[in-house]
Amino acid sequence: METLKVQNLVKTFTISEKQRKALGINEKKKVAVNGISFTAKSGEVFGLIGPNGAGKTTTMRMLATLIAPDSGDALYNDVSAVKSPEEIRSQLAFLTTDLKPDMKSTPNIMFDFFAELYHVSKDTAEKRKKLLFDEFGINKFADTTISKLSQGQRQKVSLVISVIHDPKFVILDEPTNGLDIIASRVVRDFILDMKKSGKCVIISTHLFDLVEKVCDRAAMIMDGKIVADDTLENLMQGRSLEDAFYDIYTSLNGGKDEV
Amino acid sequence: MRDIITVAKKEIRAFFSDKAILMQMFILPFAIVFGYGMLMSAMWSGMREDSAVQDNKSIIAYSINAPAEFSSALDELGIKPAPDNDIEKYKSQVKSKDADMLMIFPDDFKMGSEDTNPLSNIDIFYNSDKDSSMELYSKATVIFTTMQPRIFTFNESADIEYDLVDKAAMLRNLLSGIIPLMVFMAVYMVCMNLAANSIAGDKEKGFLNTLLITPIKRESIAAGKSLSILLVAIISSCSAFAGMAISLPKFSEALAIAENTSYSISDYALLLGAVITGAFVFAVILLIISTIAKDVKQATQLSPILLIIVMIPSLLCSSDNFSANVEKLGAKNYIIPVWNSVKLLQDGIKLNYSWANAGITFGINIAAALLGIVIIGKLFRREKIVNG
């Protein structure tokens, strides 16, 4: 059983003068994530849902060890992401539409390159390549330069690259942002496949529809804090997830519904 | 090490599979240095007598046997009576630029008239490779020409070479100012583009973060990328060096100087070493800029600052004052990365170098490049820089 325990993550950013002017604020620091904790397990999809600027991406980037928390930790099977980021990265896949493959390369070259970086043996890499290329239908464009591929094909390449090493944990930050309907569907199917194969999947999104379709449990995040964390059923209580979120949001704002 | 090589291999494969980049690496530096060399050779061959480049404010000029009628004119020009009559000694001083002029009046000098034939001739020796000497010569000719006409002549003898310039030295001085600039400009152009795309480009395109989520250390990614750009620096340096090596004899031909301008294999080895190790530092500085920059545009905007380090001293080296001040620094010149390569290239072209200084230059530059790679590795650890 794979378990991710997120413990009291805190992250503060310094706001530059330029940013302060643009945002019309005086504060020099912003607490992006303020004590976030949750637990996710293998074979389930855990969703982190919240409006833009709530702290979802910062949380996901800390989970992916791209940035370090000011305090708190994420324990992957009791291994600290803060103390052993390289070890953690060998067990997880991180996917966001901001992360892209090298556009001048081909899927074949990219796969071989990342297989080496993930220290996958040549034999295993060949087997994984065959399996994943067949599964995602990449063979027909495996030697085409990535810049010439469609958005959906590129997304497939990114997905395949992220799971070369057969990770135990899959973290997806706004995975369908900016994607067309075909590419979005590819991502959704990928998430369900990962769940089916027993991975621990964590996604962050502001799309209620996606959460309802793929998640087993979800946490609602506002202003860097988790305001609700439960199964979808318990969160929704017969309402749509969007209504549930809106009710929680207005109750926290003293009945005001301004966004 | 395996991870570093994996990253470097990927970068190198990308460079070698792109025809435009191959052209840039192998052909462009050669074309710039060689093309510019040919252009300059063609220009110089037509105007070689006009190449005066030095400046020296204090005039040192001597006259021998000057008659009293010339006292005020010579005083005005700052020409003093020579302490002795050792003509060869003063000619040698003019040739070596230690003196500006030697003016020799014949023992039996007489002011002539329209009927006098032949008129007494004054021999004026100067050095066209020295500004102050040329300036003094011009003033002297103006003053003498405006004096009563046809009472004497000057520099009339066809058998005497009055311009005592050391043409080989002049050529080497000219080349030492231009060649380092051309060579490093060519290397800079290649490395700047590739270094900017290697890190800032990957950052901009979202590929750097894709690398950062792999289990390899960030320092390994930095080192792998640095290694690939260092290879580019070596290739472009060799290409620029080839252009330089072919151009050097052409410069000599253009100035019709065959003697004392040939370079031996060890001279060329020194020049190549200066170019390659200088290019290492160049490449690493460009990579640091690329790491700090948000995107390729910012990296390419910041990079030209580096060229100033090469351009200013290269252009100023033809000034006597600047050169004299630089020479006063002695071995200190060779401990400043990039500048030491420019200086060593200048020394090598002038055939006035020491292998000890070359050793210092090579060692310092390689150490600076390694330090630069460590700095890039450290920068890769900084969230603000790498993760935006």
TrEMBL record, chain A:
<dbReference type="InterPro" id="IPR050763">
    <property type="entry name" value="ABC_transporter_ATP-binding"/>
</dbReference>
<keyword id="KW-0813">Transport</keyword>
<dbReference type="GO" id="GO:0005524">
    <property type="term" value="F:ATP binding"/>
</dbReference>
<comment type="similarity">
    <text>Belongs to the ABC transporter superfamily.</text>
</comment>
<dbReference type="InterPro" id="IPR027417">
    <property type="entry name" value="P-loop_NTPase"/>
</dbReference>
<keyword id="KW-0547">Nucleotide-binding</keyword>
<feature type="domain" description="ABC transporter">
    <location>
        <begin position="4"/>
        <end position="248"/>
    </location>
</feature>
<keyword id="KW-0067">ATP-binding</keyword>
<protein>
    <submittedName>
        <fullName>Sodium transport system ATP-binding protein</fullName>
    </submittedName>
</protein>
<dbReference type="InterPro" id="IPR003593">
    <property type="entry name" value="AAA+_ATPase"/>
</dbReference>
<dbReference type="GO" id="GO:0016887">
    <property type="term" value="F:ATP hydrolysis activity"/>
</dbReference>
<dbReference type="InterPro" id="IPR017871">
    <property type="entry name" value="ABC_transporter-like_CS"/>
</dbReference>
<dbReference type="InterPro" id="IPR003439">
    <property type="entry name" value="ABC_transporter-like_ATP-bd"/>
</dbReference>
<dbReference type="Pfam" id="PF00005">
    <property type="entry name" value="ABC_tran"/>
</dbReference>
Automatic annotation (TrEMBL), chain B:
<feature type="transmembrane region" description="Helical">
    <location>
        <begin position="268"/>
        <end position="293"/>
    </location>
</feature>
<dbReference type="GO" id="GO:0016020">
    <property type="term" value="C:membrane"/>
</dbReference>
<feature type="transmembrane region" description="Helical">
    <location>
        <begin position="360"/>
        <end position="380"/>
    </location>
</feature>
<feature type="domain" description="ABC-2 type transporter transmembrane">
    <location>
        <begin position="19"/>
        <end position="376"/>
    </location>
</feature>
<feature type="transmembrane region" description="Helical">
    <location>
        <begin position="227"/>
        <end position="248"/>
    </location>
</feature>
<keyword id="KW-1133">Transmembrane helix</keyword>
<feature type="transmembrane region" description="Helical">
    <location>
        <begin position="174"/>
        <end position="196"/>
    </location>
</feature>
<dbReference type="Pfam" id="PF12698">
    <property type="entry name" value="ABC2_membrane_3"/>
</dbReference>
<dbReference type="InterPro" id="IPR013525">
    <property type="entry name" value="ABC2_TM"/>
</dbReference>
<dbReference type="GO" id="GO:0140359">
    <property type="term" value="F:ABC-type transporter activity"/>
</dbReference>
<keyword id="KW-0812">Transmembrane</keyword>
<feature type="transmembrane region" description="Helical">
    <location>
        <begin position="21"/>
        <end position="44"/>
    </location>
</feature>
<feature type="transmembrane region" description="Helical">
    <location>
        <begin position="305"/>
        <end position="324"/>
    </location>
</feature>
<protein>
    <submittedName>
        <fullName>ABC-type Na+ efflux pump, permease component</fullName>
    </submittedName>
</protein>
<keyword id="KW-0472">Membrane</keyword>
